[in-house]
Every structure is written in structure tokens, then in C-alpha cells.
Structure to design on (955 residues):
């Protein structure tokens, strides 16, 4: 193989190779080239997205740690801090869905663990192609099994998430996992190799050949040949992961650590060089000291192996013995594999021989590509929609049932029942509400978390869609009564080398950044997953937003289900629904078109904040936001979850399908008992709201338009997504 | 009263059990799997989780842990033992309870709250319930499908050793069995998790009565 073929096979461009030679002042050897290949991949180096990511607000009064570490940290009150991050595992899941999803969960748990926090909650954000296709059914079934298989066994509850289906995700599923950890605010760790002479301890599972060049693989398009990259997919062992959690937290408790870092993409290379670069020191690793799963591994294989369930710790020499003994107690392999050095290089040794040595700063400094942002022509076409020409439904009840039973709107019960969502005994609001609610034991405090994104919106209007994703997360947290505080994101896009995807990336980030600023929720961590493309094209731009909010008193919260007969139903917010980009337009009319609602951020904030205040002061206990499917679907959900019907009046004189099924941001439904009405109306002063009906009876009625029994709603909504759409090996029934 | 909680590698409801024991007013004691020592506790909870990663079979490796020796002696001498979920699986593997827990007939992990019925109050862990009392308990398992040969099953029924029965069977268990006890009635295995509904903040504290029961049993003995 020529040099050119070698670096091309490792995913490096001519320009990048020349830059490496220039930096080193010599040609790199194969091991060094491998180091650059993984550290300069998009996955590790953010070379296409870094200039755009600078747009995000990162600071805020509660932020203790912003981007740049393994996870972000915010203050949660009472001396506690929340550590959280979201990460993608799309490419591995596309070729090996069970292990891809499982190791995605394992990886994000270790990111949070590396900050010294106990992982206490998991969420996810999933996208698949339509379930009519067998391949998509297989991917969906196995990804869900993989998430459960790992999360359930490791004992971290999976408390929330979202899943959507669209043709754009066919054979290119998105699997984003989010983890939240709890740590004393004074105790969290940063990944820094400091103190010349300190030792580098590798502990956890042994190192094998799995996941070689996984980060490089994740930074390329998916093709027919991707299937052959199955050996690039790592295999997870949640049992070892559980031992790793307990061991790491014990090491921390016994004060045996200077610093901690997980091994994720690019294995030892990435961990050691990041720690060295941040600490301003060098790190030496002797590959002969690394506990191996298989003999005869080459040095370059050892340093870029992505074997799961491993951590790297910096330990003072006098504490090393005790640290190793603790690892043994938890039945983990552990060894001193190197030391912190003053030379600033990541130096790989094989016994006494230096087999590679590169400045850690060079590895951490991937080249940056700034590209021109050009609006693609096809968008102008897709945005054309004259909704006036669409036929008006003859039977609104039938339309609602059809929508409620659609995979994008029906109950997620068959998914979340496969996840242990209660282990840890902290889950206050079980899955199925607007956001997950967790308590912090021994306090009245709590926190809420949600993941949100509407790919269709982002496709039709990337800037508005990006802002809408943030606004929806903010609204969801507010609807359970939590004060939203900070964001983690996972930016899933197509190839940035193509104009369209780069435009989408830039515009979505712009919209998100704007929303984060207005709403006051800084981005404290995140991940970028580009090259989500198959031969059929790119996925919808899908910037998944994970947001975390706080409770001072977790007993003051709200859920969507109606709770009493005779409650007044209030619609809060500026209600101007449109059919553009709506679920209704796609499900009923088969079209993805128009300009979806672009959020009015000031009004979003006003509505969400007033709802949050009403809940946190104990005035309101029933709230639900308008989202996909519009007013009718939101009312149906509140009725069927609470097993109480409602009667609602007509809301407009115009097209009734727009009023019932059109979508709009910044609107929330509340159900309030008579005696609290005065109090709530006082609180609502300054925002638009309307009394639209009352709870009661066994039917959902909208005068003259809808009239359905609760059992009919339940029957439509409570679909088993797997039995109906994805039977094991069977045909669609 | 001091109640021990065994901790195997992979146990993940150990902290939840320790927490609820303290809430119930007893002293929780950690029992590490590699120590053949029950530290003089008055009762033992074998918690849920995935001991040894459920490798081989759920509970199949944990039963050989060092802590199991003294635990078997303790159970043999009438000490109150409760196995929850994976703990139930460990106790059947250790032959402290009859039968086995097979894979759910739905072939899926199932996590939800199910209605169940207390069938006997004549165990240290159910003494404060009413016979026939209905409670909603969370299950979270992949292998909760109780199986025993027809003779054993008939014996369990005849001797009133079915402790808890599902009103909606989530896993295919024979006779809707959710929990059983041994012949001496001091060793109880439950698939559902009472410790997860032992706190009003989490929506229900019906499960706390299981732990209150063993406390009142101990007091009665003293």
C-alpha cells in the first residue's frame, strides 16, 4: 500500500496528511498516523462543526462546567450538582443494532462517571425508518432491546425519551443516549493529566481488538460496505460496566484519584492525549503493560482499541497499590500502564522502545473547516403549501383515531416497559408524561429531564426547527413544574461536505443558539454526529435537545392526565395553529411541506414560565403542552391517561382541521378545579389564555366535530409498536 | 433490628433495599458476597439486579458465593430471608425455594406496575397484610415466569405456600405465581419489587408493609 492509500484508508485527506508532516517535521509512522486518524475524525475532533458550535451560549449562573469536559455540570441546590451529556451511536447501531445501542448507553454512562458522579438516569432519542420495512423493524426492535439490555443490567433507570419514524431514517437509524449523574458540587472531577511522575492506571475490562477505528467509521457515510465494518462495532458488557461504576466511585470515596477519564471513541489514544492536552503535561503509555484479551496485538491496535468498560485514572504513586487492590475487589483488570511526563507528548512505548510520539496538543487540535452556507434550492419547493386546497375531513372522530394509532403519536408504553425505569427508587413521574421527574434522596429537591426534536420541522425550516426543539424541551420541563436550567445536544446531520447538510447544520445551530439565549438555558455539553447518509440520501437534520430542569420541592409537580371531574380546561398561549409540517399533513394527506411554526421565543418563555410558576406554587397539578397532532391529540392524551372525558367548545370559525390538528408552539393545556380558578387567572395575567371546556364523563367531545368514547381513544392509542408493526421475523399484520 | 442485604457483583437493587430498611426503622447491614459472614443480622434480603451479569442463568453463579454458606445455615435455622426479583432467582438456584424462573413468555423484559394479591400472611414478610389484600407492585424482569413440576406446584398450593399471586399475569407464571415461601415459611421469594413502592413521594408506600412485617415479627419473637 502506498503512503497515500494508507492515510486515505484511515480517513485522512491529502491536506491533513501534509499538515501532520508539517507539524511533526517528519513523516509519521503507522501508529502515529492512526493516532491522528482517530483524533482528527469528526467524532473526536469536531473539525466541521467547531466554528458553528462557538455560537452556543455556554455560561449561566448555575453552570459549574461547560463543554470541553466529559459532561456538563450544573448546580442543583443543597450542595448537589447534576452532570449530564447526550451522545450518538448511530453508525454502530445501523450495522449491529443491539450492541450499537447497548454500547451507546454504556459510553454515555462512563462519560458521566468520569466526572465523579453516580449515574442516576438515562434518556434517549431514537429515529427509525417506517415500520413497514422489515429492516427498520429489525433495527427498532434490536435497538430497544439493546438499550434495555444494557441499562437494565447496569442498574441505571431509563426514565424518558422519544422515538419517531420517517422515511429519511430508513437504514440510518439515530440512536442518541443521554445520561444524568448526581455528585456533590464540590467533588466533581475534571479529566486532566497533572503532576509529573503521577501514574496512569488503566482499569476495567481487558483490551481486545474490538472497535478498531470505530471513530473513523462513525465519521463516514453508511454504504453497502458498512455491513463489512461489523467488526468495528464494540461489544458491551453491562456487568463489567456496573463493576466499573462501583469501583470508580469507591476510588473516589477513598480519595485515591487525581483525575479520571473514560475510554470511548479512539480508546487509550483519545483518553490519554485529551488528559495530557488539558493538563498541559505529557503522557507515556507502555503497551506491554496493558492487560490484553488476546495475545499478539500490535501496539497501534492496543492504543486505538475501543474495547468497552475501561477507565483511565491518574493516581499518585503512593496510592497506586491501594487503587489496584480496590479494582481487584471489584474483579476488574487493572494495571499501571504509564505515567505523567513533562514533555507534552503522547508517547507510546513498547518496553524500552518508543513506538510513537506526538505532541498531545497536535492531536487535540484537529484542522477546522469553515464552509460556505448556501440555502438549497429544493427547500424553496418543499416549503410551498397552499393548505386551502387540502380537502376538509368528513369525519373528525375517525381522523383523530387514525392519528392516535399512528406510530409517531401512539403510546410509547411498549417501548418503555422494556426499560427498567424505577431501579434506584428515585423515579417520581414514570415515563409517558411530558418529562421524567426524579427526586434527590434525603432532600425535597428533584430534577426533570426531556429529549426533544422534530426532524420534519428542521428539514423544512432548519433555523425555526432548531429553535422549536429547544422551545419544546423548555415547555416540557415547565409542564411538569421544573425550572429549565441547561441543555445538552446531539447534532445528527448528513455529510458536511455537501452543501445542503452544512446549511442545515449551520441554520439549526443558529436557531438553537438563539432559543438558548432567549430562554436562558446554556448548552453545557453535546455531541456531533455527521455523515448520517446512505445511498438513498441524508437523514432529516435532527438536532436532539436534552434539557434538564430543577425542583425546589419535587412534590409540587404536574402530569398530563385529567385528575378530577369538573375541572376547567384552559388553553394558555398564542393559539395560531398551522398545518405546515404537521403530523396531520403527513399522516392524513401524505405530505411533508410548508413552513412549520417558527417559535416566538419571548412568548414561549412567558407561557412556559407562568405554567411552571403555577405548578411550583401548588396551584396546578395537570398540564400538557400542544405538540405533534395539535389540540385534539393533546386533549385525547389528557383524557385517556386520566380516564376522564372532557367537553370542549369550538375554538375558531375557520377550518376546523387546522384548529384541531394544526400545530403551534408555546401552547399549554391546564385543567384546574373551580376553587383555584381565581388564583390561576391572576397568575396568567399578561399571557393569552382561554377557558375552552370542562373535564367529565366518559367521552371526549368537541362540539359538533368530535365525539369519541374513552375506550375508543384507548384502543387507538395503546398500540404495541412491536406486535403490530414489527413482529419477530413475521409479516406486517 | 439489623437486616442484612447481600451484595453480589451485579446486584443493582442493593442500595434500594438498604434505603427502605432504614426507612422502615431497622439498621441496614451490607453483606459482601466474598465474605462468609452474616455479621449477626436478624434477617436477610437478597436484592434484585443482575448478579454476575445473569451469565449462565440468573442466580446460577451467585449461589456459589461465599456469603451463601452462612445464608443457607441462617435460613435452615429459621431466620427470615427475602429474595426479591434476582434474589428470588438466587434462592431457587440455591434450592432454598422450589421451582425455577424461566424467561417471560412475551420474550421481552417487562417493567410495569401490576395488581397482585397477598395469598398468605403466615410468613415473617407478610404478617401485617390481610389475607386476600390487593396491592399494586412493580415488576422489572426478563425471567420471572415461575415454573415447577406439577407435584411441587400442587404441594405449594395445598400447603398455602403461594405468598403472592398476580391478578394480571405479566410473564406466564404457572398459577399466576408472583411469590412463594419454603416449607418452614421463613424464606420468601417475590418477583415484584416491594421496595419500589415504599415511599409516598414515588406514588405509593404499599410495599413498606413487607419490611414493617419482618420488624413486627422480630419484635413478637423478642
Amino acid at each position: 500500500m502506498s503512503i497515500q492509500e494508507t492515510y486515505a484508508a484511515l480517513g485522512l485527506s491529502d491536506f491533513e496528511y501534509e499538515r501532520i508532516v508539517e507539524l511533526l517535521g517528519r513523516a509519521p509512522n503507522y501508529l502515529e498516523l492512526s493516532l491522528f486518524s482517530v483524533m482528527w475524525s469528526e467524532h473526536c475532533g469536531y473539525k466541521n462543526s467547531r466554528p458553528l458550535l462557538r455560537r452556543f451560549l455556554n455560561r449561566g449562573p448555575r453552570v459549574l462546567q461547560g463543554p470541553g469536559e466529559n459532561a456538563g455540570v450544573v448546580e442543583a441546590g443543597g450542595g448537589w450538582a447534576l452532570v449530564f451529556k447526550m451522545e450518538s451511536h448511530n453508525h454502530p447501531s445501523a450495522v449491529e443494532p443491539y450492541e450499537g445501542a447497548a454500547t451507546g448507553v454504556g459510553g454515555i454512562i462512563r462519560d458521566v462517571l468520569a466526572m465523579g458522579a453516580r449515574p442516576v438516569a438515562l434518556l434517549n432519542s431514537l429515529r427509525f425508518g417506517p415500520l413497514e420495512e422489515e429492516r427498520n423493524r429489525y433495527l427498532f426492535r434490536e435497538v430497544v432491546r439493546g438499550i434495555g439490555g444494557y441499562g437494565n443490567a447496569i442498574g441505571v433507570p431509563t426514565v424518558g425519551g422519544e422515538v419517531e419514524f420517517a422515511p429519511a431514517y430508513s437504514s440510518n437509524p439515530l440512536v442518541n443516549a443521554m445520561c444524568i449523574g448526581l455528585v456533590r458540587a464540590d467533588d466533581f472531577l475534571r479529566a486532566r493529566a497533572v503532576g509529573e511522575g503521577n501514574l496512569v492506571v488503566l482499569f476495567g475490562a481487558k483490551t481486545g481488538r474490538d472497535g478498531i477505528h470505530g471513530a473513523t467509521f462513525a465519521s463516514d457515510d453508511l454504504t453497502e460496505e458498512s455491513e463489512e465494518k461489523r467488526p468495528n462495532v464494540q461489544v458491551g458488557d453491562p456487568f463489567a460496566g456496573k463493576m466499573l461504576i462501583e469501583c470508580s466511585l469507591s476510588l473516589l470515596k477513598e480519595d485515591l484519584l487525581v483525575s479520571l477519564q473514560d475510554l470511548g471513541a479512539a480508546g487509550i489514544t483519545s483518553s490519554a492525549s485529551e488528559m495530557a492536552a488539558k493538563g498541559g503535561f505529557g503522557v507515556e503509555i507502555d503497551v506491554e503493560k496493558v492487560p490484553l484479551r488476546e495475545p499478539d496485538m500490535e501496539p497501534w491496535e492496543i492504543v486505538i482499541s475501543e474495547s468497552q468498560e475501561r477507565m483511565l485514572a491518574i493516581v499518585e504513586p503512593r496510592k497506586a497499590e491501594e487503587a489496584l487492590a480496590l479494582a481487584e475487589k471489584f474483579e476488574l483488570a487493572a494495571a499501571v500502564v504509564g505515567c505523567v511526563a513533562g514533555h507534552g507528548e503522547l508517547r507510546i512505548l513498547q518496553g524500552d522502545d518508543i513506538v510513537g510520539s506526538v505532541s498531545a496538543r497536535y492531536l487535540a487540535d484537529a484542522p477546522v473547516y469553515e464552509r460556505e452556507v448556501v440555502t438549497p434550492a429544493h427547500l424553496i419547493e418543499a416549503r410551498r403549501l397552499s393548505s386551502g386546497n387540502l380537502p376538509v375531513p368528513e369525519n373528525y372522530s375517525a381522523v383523530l383515531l387514525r392519528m392516535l394509532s399512528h406510530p409517531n403519536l401512539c403510546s410509547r408504553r411498549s417501548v418503555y416497559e422494556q426499560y427498567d425505569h424505577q431501579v434506584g427508587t428515585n423515579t417520581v413521574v414514570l415515563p409517558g408524561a411530558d418529562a421524567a421527574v426524579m427526586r434527590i434522596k434525603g432532600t425535597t429537591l428533584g430534577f426533570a429531564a426531556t429529549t426533544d426534536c422534530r426532524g420534519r420541522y428542521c428539514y423544512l425550516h432548519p433555523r425555526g426547527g432548531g429553535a422549536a426543539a429547544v422551545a419544546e424541551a423548555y415547555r416540557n420541563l415547565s409542564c411538569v413544574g421544573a425550572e429549565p436550567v441547561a441543555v445538552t445536544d446531539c447534532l445528527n446531520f448528513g455529510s458536511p461536505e455537501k452543501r445542503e447538510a452544512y446549511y442545515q447544520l449551520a441554520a439549526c445551530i443558529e436557531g438553537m443558539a438563539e432559543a438558548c439565549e432567549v430562554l436562558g438555558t446554556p448548552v453545557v455539553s453535546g455531541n456531533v454526529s455527521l455523515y448520517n447518509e446512505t445511498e438513498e440520501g441524508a437523514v432529516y437534520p435532527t438536532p436532539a435537545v436534552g434539557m434538564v430542569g430543577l425542583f425546589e420541592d419535587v412534590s409540587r409537580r404536574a402530569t398530563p392526565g385529567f385528575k378530577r371531574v369538573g375541572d376547567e380546561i384552559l388553553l394558555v398561549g398564542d393559539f395560531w395553529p398551522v398545518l405546515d409540517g404537521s403530523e396531520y399533513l403527513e399522516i392524513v394527506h401524505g405530505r411533508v411541506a410548508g413552513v412549520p411554526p417558527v417559535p416566538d421565543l419571548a412568548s414561549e418563555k412567558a407561557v412556559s414560565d407562568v405554567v411552571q410558576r403555577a405548578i411550583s406554587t401548588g396551584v396546578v397539578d395537570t398540564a400538557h403542552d400542544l405538540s405533534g397532532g395539535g389540540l385534539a391529540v393533546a386533549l385525547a392524551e389528557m383524557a385517556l391517561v386520566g380516564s376522564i372525558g372532557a367537553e370542549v367548545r369550538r375554538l375558531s370559525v375557520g377550518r376546523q382541521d387546522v384548529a384541531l390538528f394544526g400545530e403551534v408552539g408555546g401552547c399549554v393545556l391546564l385543567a384546574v378545579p373551580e376553587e383555584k380558578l381565581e388564583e390561576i387567572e391572576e397568575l396568567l395575567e399578561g399571557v393569552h389564555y382561554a377557558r375552552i371546556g370542562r373535564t367529565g364523563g366518559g367521552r371526549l367531545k368537541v362540539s359538533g366535530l368530535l365525539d369519541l368514547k374513552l375506550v375508543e381513544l384507548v384502543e387507538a392509542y395503546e398500540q404495541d409498536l412491536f406486535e403490530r408493526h414489527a413482529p419477530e421475523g413475521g409479516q406486517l399484520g | 433490628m439489623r437486616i442484612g442485604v447481600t451484595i453480589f457483583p451485579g446486584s443493582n437493587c442493593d442500595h434500594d433495599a438498604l434505603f427502605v430498611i432504614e426507612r422502615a426503622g431497622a439498621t441496614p447491614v451490607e453483606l459482601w458476597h466474598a465474605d462468609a459472614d452474616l455479621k449477626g443480622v436478624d434477617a436477610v434480603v437478597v436484592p434484585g439486579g443482575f448478579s454476575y451479569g445473569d451469565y449462565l442463568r440468573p442466580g446460577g453463579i451467585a449461589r456459589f458465593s461465599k456469603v451463601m454458606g452462612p445464608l443457607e445455615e441462617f435460613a435452615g435455622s429459621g431466620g427470615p430471608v427475602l429474595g426479591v426479583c434476582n434474589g428470588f432467582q438466587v434462592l431457587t438456584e440455591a434450592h432454598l425455594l422450589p421451582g425455577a424462573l424461566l424467561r417471560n413468555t412475551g420474550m421481552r423484559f417487562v417493567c410495569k406496575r401490576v395488581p397482585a394479591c397477598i395469598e398468605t400472611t403466615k410468613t415473617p414478610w407478610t404478617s401485617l397484610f390481610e389475607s386476600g389484600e390487593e396491592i399494586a407492585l412493580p415488576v422489572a424482569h426478563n425471567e420471572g415466569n415461575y415454573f415447577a413440576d406439577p407435584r411441587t406446584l400442587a404441594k405449594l398450593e395445598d400447603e398455602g405456600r403461594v405468598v403472592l399471586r398476580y391478578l394480571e399475569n405479566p410473564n406466564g407464571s404457572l398459577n399466576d405465581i408472583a411469590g412463594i415461601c419454603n416449607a418452614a415459611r421463613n424464606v420468601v421469594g417475590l418477583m415484584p419489587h416491594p421496595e419500589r413502592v415504599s415511599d409516598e413521594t414515588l406514588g405509593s408506600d404499599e410495599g413498606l408493609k413487607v419490611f414493617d412485617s419482618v420488624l413486627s415479627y422480630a419484635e413478637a419473637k423478642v
User: Anything to note?
Assistant: Confidence is low (pLDDT under 50) at residues 729-733 of chain A. The longest strand of chain A covers residues 118-128. The longest helix of chain A spans residues 134-154. Chain A is about 35% helix and 25% strand.
